[in-house]
Design goal:
mainly alpha; 8 strands; elongated; STAS domain-containing protein; transmembrane helix; SLC26A/SulP_fam
Length: 725
């Protein structure tokens, strides 16, 4: 129990005469709030002080490999890391080449991207298990930006380039650039610039310690976004499966534009590509299902994708699919590394907004996966360090013609299931990719693009399989299912980046909507103990005579304070505002009667309809007032479900207390948390001088039973309202 001055001694004095002895707790003294300049100085000293121990801790925290590598258990961990690293490396070779197609880049850049990401995350990442590299959704986002900038720069779409001069492209005249750079060169320049900008965003968010933003991206939101993007990816790959040469549409509603282009160009389908696609699909889909079916018995998944790539490349090479049938192939894939180059600074303003959404998606996916596997294996990860790690996985590789990366669920699951213990497996994966870059890459010259598209489509099974879970999601939680559907539909049908924003807004709307839908509930207690629950939810609950107990399970703030009052008045079946209005009308009518000396008799409904509205209302009011009585003498509000109050919420409670007191009904608060108590104190709720109220009644209690006992013990005069009858 707390009085207005928060003094425990005062409570004890008031409680001495109470035989029920209410629960008394003494608040811990609050620390004196420091001035703002003192707080700033303390933080500067904390973060800018330099000691050997602090320097060592910062270095080890920023470069986690320095912490775990000296403690590496070679005998226990090397076998699992070696196997998982080799398997992931083998899987990444065909996938890196395939996802380069999705990002509108040449195959070699996908291998570059996977190589650098594996090395950098192994050094800076705090998760032991996630696999960082190419991720389909990010490749789609990067590819959309690349195609847009290519069109703005004046480069012809790939479908408009002649067969005999496929390497001769227009110079970038649309943006005023005089630099000699063909289409492929400009495409990776745009991709690297987007990647650099996204990495800068991610590192800045790490410096600002905003890793907490990941909690605002719910699982249903991310899942819906990934599924919607997967539908877009699937649509974008159909043209490669059919061997159609049509440009990727830009702007909103790209899915509809793509399907329109597919149907209008269906007659130009390349039969060779179509047959190859169907054969590869017929092989890979059952093979993937077998891998999933026997994953508990297999020490490592069988790399069917690599087998398909090797066989398809040999068939295309010896069958002369490119020259004889016009089938699109990967083309020349150089070995080694190209010299580093700076991003195109002039392009950054054009891609800044796109890079921000890419940065958010990449960070959210990486943090959610790292936290999921860390929880599963009993260790912790630092969200801000993950921000740094994924940021540098984008910044540094962007100088070597790479595009955006993040963690990928499928490869992470494979990595974990094959015995991964540390990020040593990532370094082993990098060795496999380095071998491909230096020796094997040129052998994929004849690999058909339709085969790469098949690999992309087959790897969408997991995300597209979420459609089967919609009925279950709807049964479990309709709000989460609605967020999933809204995000998925917007990402797929309208715009991929817009889908993420709409998902965040929808989540916020539903959170606010829950506070708008909260209703005041009347509580009753059990017969054997003083435990209170909703009388409409449980049978056998009893209520107190003259004391009504209510609960509101939502914060009271500016957006719902009027709904709180409306719900309380309705549940209590006593609206003080309406009663006050009736009272004023009654007094006015009574005064008129005294002045005229006439007392109107009660009229029938037909007669009332013919009389003056004011006189009829006054007459009816007098009748109701004479016959009615207020059964509630005290009203207890259980505040255990009220998380916080703002100024509007405090004023709402003041108004409720004042309005009911004018009717002779006392309002008592119970089970307020410390945040609510502090808000009430700061808001002047306990200041009796403001409203002319009796100070001893301005208190709150720690239990509902104490509040009810107190309400039953006080004798509140009924005042003018009762005396009027």
């Amino acid at each position: 129990m707390l009085p207005k001055d928060d003094s425990c001694a005062a409570v004890e004095d008031r409680a001495e005469g109470d035989p029920q002895h209410p629960l008394i707790l003494e608040r811990v003294e609050k620390k004196t709030e420091k001035k703002w300049h003192t707080v700033v100085l303390d933080r500067v000293k904390k973060h800018c002080s330099c000691t050997p121990e602090k320097v060592k801790s910062k270095i080890l925290g920023f470069v986690p490999i320095l912490k775990w590598l000296p403690r590496y258990k070679l005998r226990d961990w090397i076998l699992g890391d070696l196997m998982s690293g080799i398997i992931i490396g083998i899987l990444l070779v065909p996938q890196s080449i395939a996802y380069s197609l999705l990002a509108s880049q040449d195959p070699i850049y996908g291998i570059y991207t996977s190589f650098f990401a594996s090395v950098i995350y192994a050094i800076l990442g705090s998760s032991r298990h996630i696999s960082v590299g190419i991720f389909g959704v990010l490749c789609l986002l990067v590819g959309q930006v690349v195609d847009r900038e290519l069109a703005l720069a004046g480069y012809l779409p790939e479908s408009s380039i002649g067969i005999n001069n496929s390497d001769t492209l227009l110079a970038g005249q649309g943006n005023g650039s005089n630099v000699e750079c063909d289409r492929s060169c400009y495409a990776i320049t745009v991709g690297a610039t987007v990647t650099f900008t996204a990495g800068i965003y991610q590192v800045l968010m790490g410096l600002l310690q905003v890793g907490f933003v990941s909690v605002y991206l719910s699982d249903s939101l991310l899942s819906g976004f990934a599924t919607g993007a997967s539908l877009t990816i699937l649509t974008s790959q159909i043209k490669f499966l059919l061997g159609l040469k049509i440009p990727r549409p830009q702007g909103w509603f790209t899915m509809f534009k793509t399907w329109y282009g597919l149907f209008t160009n269906l007659a130009t389908t390349n039969i060779c590509d179509l047959i190859t696609s169907l054969v590869c699909l017929a092989v890979l889909i059952p093979a993937k299902e077998l891998n999933d079916l026997f994953k508990s018995k297999l020490k490592a998944p069988i790399p069917f994708e690599l087998f398909v790539v090797v066989i398809a490349t040999l068939a295309s090479h010896f069958g002369h699919f490119s020259s004889e049938y016009g089938s699109g192939v990967a083309g020349d894939i150089p070995t080694g590394f190209l010299p580093p180059q700076l991003p195109a600074w002039k392009l950054i303003p054009n891609v800044a907004m796109d890079a921000f959404s890419i940065a958010i998606v990449g960070f959210a996916i990486t943090v959610s996966l790292s936290e999921m596997f860390a929880k599963k294996h009993g260790y912790t990860v630092d969200a801000n360090q993950e921000m740094y790690a994924i940021g540098f996985c984008n910044i540094l590789p962007s100088f070597f013609r790479c595009f955006t990366t993040s963690a990928a669920l499928t490869k992470t699951l494979v990595k974990e299931s094959t015995g991964c213990q540390t990020q040593m497996s990532g370094l082993i994966t990098a060795v496999i990719l380095l071998l491909v870059l230096l020796v094997i890459a040129p052998l994929f010259y004849s690999l058909q693009k339709c085969v790469l598209a098949v690999i992309i489509v087959v790897n969408l099974r997991g995300a597209l399989g979420k459609f089967r879970d919609i009925p279950q999601m709807w049964r479990v939680n309709r709000i989460d299912a609605s967020i999933w559907l809204i995000t998925m539909a917007t990402s797929a049908l309208v715009n991929t980046e817009l889908g993420l924003l709409v998902g965040v807004l929808a989540s916020a709307f539903f959170v606010l909507g829950r506070t708008q839908q909260a209703q005041v509930m009347e509580l009753g207690h059990t017969a054997t103990r003083e435990h209170y629950e909703n009388v409409s939810s449980y049978r056998g609950l009893q209520t107190h005579s003259g004391v009504a107990v209510f609960r509101y399970e939502a914060p009271i703030y500016y957006a719902n304070q009027s709904l709180f009052k409306k719900s309380l008045y309705k549940c209590a079946d006593l609206n003080p505002v309406k009663q006050k209005a009736l009272r004023l009308k009654f007094k006015k009518n009574k005064k008129q009667q005294e002045e005229t000396g006439k007392i109107p008799k009660v009229k029938s409904e037909d007669d009332l309809s013919k009389e003056n509205e004011v006189e009829a209302s006054a007459s009816i009011t007098m009748m109701l007032d004479e016959k009615s009585s207020i059964n509630i003498r005290s009203l207890v509000i259980d505040c255990s479900g009220i998380l916080f109050l703002d100024t509007a919420g405090i004023n709402a409670l003041k108004e409720v207390r004042k309005d009911y007191r004018e009717l002779g009904v006392e309002v008592v608060l119970a089970q307020c948390n410390t945040s609510v108590l502090d808000s009430l104190e700061r808001g002047g709720y306990y200041d009796s001088k403001k409203d002319g109220e009796v100070g001893k009644n301005n208190m709150t209690f720690f239990t509902i039973a104490d509040a009810v006992n107190y309400a039953q013990s006080i004798n509140v005069p009924n005042g003018d309202y009762d005396n009027k009858s």
